[in-house]
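Class, look over these structure tokens:
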Amino acid sequence: MAMSKEQVLSGTIIYGDKPEVIEGYLCIEDNIITEIGTDTDVDAHFSGVIAPCFVNAHTHIGDSVLKDPPILDLDSLVKPPMGLKHRVLRLTPDIDMKHALRQTLLDMINTGTCTFCDYREGGIPGASILIEVLDSLQDISGIILGRPQRQDEPHIGEPDELAVICNGIGISGANDVSSQVLEETVDIVRRAGKIFSIHAGEKDASDIPMAIELRPDFLVHMTHAQKNDLSAISDADIPVVVCPRSNLITGVGSLTHPPIQKMLDMDIIVGVGTDNVMLNSVNMFAEMEFLSKVYRLDDGQVFKMCTLYGATLLGLDQDIGSIMENKQANIMVLNNRSSNLSNSHNLLASIVRRGRPDDIVKIIRYGREFS
């Protein structure tokens, strides 16, 4: 439903870039947070725990058509062009693909994600399908990084057109493409003023040096990054998106890989992605719980990784990723009296460690509110 000219929310606010937990209220007008205060005695439209929506910084939602296949090794599952997912994608009719993409985007909305970044396979046709489906939905925004149908031998003009219709290009890895093609692709993307990103260090560390040399806007995975790799990306100020649940299920990750705490200690901006929909849901609550309990990361850091840091590495942190005055109102309101969150002694920790989509009572996005 459309919001009135001004909307007032009250309750517990996960406030600021730090973030900190405060009691108070906020006002929204024309989808902008216009005021935040600590007065708790206000006439609010509704109350609860007010938190920023998630930023899912790395997905492959095309393989929504192949949920929960047999668990195979990484190359057998996803390596182009003959990995299982790529064989299935080539055989999937457009109508089935559109339906699967739409269902996944709706699932993102319902689980608290308002912005995502997708590596979209299938060249121009693949990217165009996702653009069409995304345009039909009002309550989520996407950064689409296209990819030539044959990364190693792209059709003449294909990377240029992808750089026009998409937000940039995302490559599967430096070992999958010649250095000449990689450098040409980076040049095309830079001239278009778009994003260049690449997987690195997912299976092993062999493709990391070349990936760093390309100076991408961000790297994805870095599962097997060593100290010298982390020093290089820290010095170059290159952010990283980690996908820990995905890495574990494909057999390339462990309790120490990716080395997330070391990345954070070196002031590397680290976002989080759910990766392949065929292997994992797009539920960022699950990703937060995993990071907190398995990797034993600080709960505040985990929350920032799944919100602000994802926005930062996508260049969106001036508008989204945290709750502050003059930012967009991409907000989820959680029920702190739910059977799951009630009796919490540390609300931020409870959201990170045990929060669930059914705790969400309202989502506000683009001047609209929905449950």
The chain has 14 helices and 16 strands. The chain has two domains: 6-53+321-370, 54-313. The chain has a mean pLDDT of 95.
